[in-house]
Amino acid sequence: MIVVFDLDGTLIDSAADIHAAVNHVLAENSVPPLPLTAVRSFIGEGTRVLMQRVIAAVGADPALLEPWHTSFLAEYERNPAVRTTVFPGVREALAQLRDRGARLGLCTNKPARATGLLLEALDLAVFDQVTAGDTLAERKPSPLPVLHTIDVLGGGEAVFIGDSEIDARAAEAGRIPFGIFTGGYAREDLDMFPSRFHFSDWADLPALINPAFVDPATSPA
Description:
alpha/beta; Rossmann fold; DNA polymerase, domain 1; 6-stranded parallel beta sheet; two-stranded antiparallel ribbon; 9 helices; 8 strands; about 40% helix; disordered C terminus; carbohydrate metabolism
């Protein structure tokens, strides 16, 4: 069994550190800061799209995208996990899935370097395959990154776990069974997308993927 996960808004709440890096760039350019709620709504389609949305939100010249994006990445890579938290129960669920023989993949639109730094800082470097936003020519919502992750892990039965419409569109386009974490960064009603299950508590995930993954010692009699 292969289980592929999104990162931001699914395994971790990273919005505060992304917000801090965005406002660092704005301060460098004498632009007033953006609120956390605005920056959170920009997350999901990679850092370049994030900064395109920032530039549009503050009314800056679109020609600033390259220098602002470079500055954002430099600041974010310096401080990837100051305020970022792992959602409760994530580590335990990942360990339980691995113990039951699941192959774990990560498919994120975040660049590979930032992803690696973040996983190491949060002690989440447990994945058998990491497909980042710059691994392939396409990013989610294209299904190719998720399908690539599954293929590298050997193919076969798989499920993709995500939190947003970006993840849902990738799963739907690739005809990949999809599980929705409801505590993330979705901007749209995810009920409009096909899914195998929804969950808000990570302790529930192993059994939702496969009842055989439940630890008998923790199951009700």
